[in-house]
Design goal:
Rossmann fold, GMP Synthetase, Chain A, domain 3, 10 helices, binds 5'-O-[hydroxy(phenylacetyl)phosphoryl]adenosine, 427 residues, globular, nine-stranded mixed β-sheet
Amino acid sequence: MWNEIESAKREDIEKIQLKRLKEVVSRVYHLSPFYREKFEKLGITPDDIKTLKDIQKLPFTKKQDLRDNYPFGLFTVPMSEVVRIHSSSGTTGKPTVVGYTKHDMDVWNEVMMRTYAMADVTSKDVVHNAYGYGLFTGGLGFHEAAQKMGATIVPASGGFTDRQLMLMRDFGATILCCTPSFALHLAEVARKEGPEFRRDYKLRAGFFGAEPTSEGMRKEVAKVWDIEYYEVYGLSEIIGPGVSCSCNKGRGLHINEDHFYPEIIDPKTGEVLPDGEEGELVITTLTKQALPIIRYRTGDITRLYKEPCACGRTFVRMESVSGRADDMLIINGVNVFPSQIEHVIAENEGVTLNYQIVADKKGYLDKLEIIVEVDENVMQSEYDSIKKRLQHDFLNNLYINANVILVEPGKIERSMGKAKRIIDKRP
Ligand code: DLL
């Protein structure tokens, strides 16, 4: 275990949570015009928070709120105190921007060190990090904490499968960090070296997340690589990876609840559900400075349970995410909303807004096809350039590699009610 707090008594955890909740509520009330206005509309002041349950009086925050305040409108520190920016996809054109102070970076590193500690990572380990480096929180999120623990970090970033495998072999990687689908893809390519391919690798554990998985997929990754599978959950709006991580003793993922306060709500009514019931995960950051967030609706469906865990940690556990409350798609770890795809199509000439998004698997990786009807007056000879332009825009604006298929007007089946825009064939 990395920190004593991870196995503290529930009363002690709750004491810290309440103290921090009061602090964060006071912070946003005094420093954020956005929250001040929301609180005033509801007739609430920081004095209304007397118990943890009083959090239910507070308003929710949604992705759209971050977008409406793009880029830095929800920050509660001057930019001179912001030392890092990351971003993820918004619901349409603009991304969601998040910021960190030095203190926020310390919190992030702390929770990521707890994450690595799940697998007893030490200076003897070589951590191969194949999460994408850049604005995505995956790459850099896993980077610094490994370094701080004295492990050797290999900042491989995404893509280039053969090269990654070569680096993993030659540098003797013991820990693999990447999306679960990329871990399977790596294994599939590595297997071409022969059935005994694992002899050339020293992997012992991996930290996988950023996309939904089934129990079967988690087992498969652990089996093909013969490693311990640790699941990591997180989201940029809250911090990035490090909100929770599984241990090697019990089910579920331990939430770092001294920093992130979880609730489960009914996504339709917003009502808080009792422990153990499945619903949408809502998180309040308890210690963030640059971008404190009150009751953020993650859109992720899961359940919480507080039963003690065999590993000794007392932090509440969440089940692996079973789905989304909204229509967000995750394509090879990259989040994309259908509304963003529509936005790109609408910005392009020669095509109409009759389109369909088809998500499927090619081997272990996700593939995305976007079928779009062209305008009536578009000639066949123009298809190629329109397709290339659209694909370029999807990659540049949304970071997704999509195969665009242009079809004649009227080719996409019309529905009587809501248009069926998304076909997700993935198992
Ligand atoms: O995906 C942070 C991350 C990076 C987590 C690396 C784990 C490993 P975002 O790009 O903001 O941040 O996407 C957040 O991804 O709301 C979930 O829908 C999904 N997600 C993240 N982890 C898991 C997981 C990163 N373990 C969104 N299982 C979240 C299922 C996950 N979905």
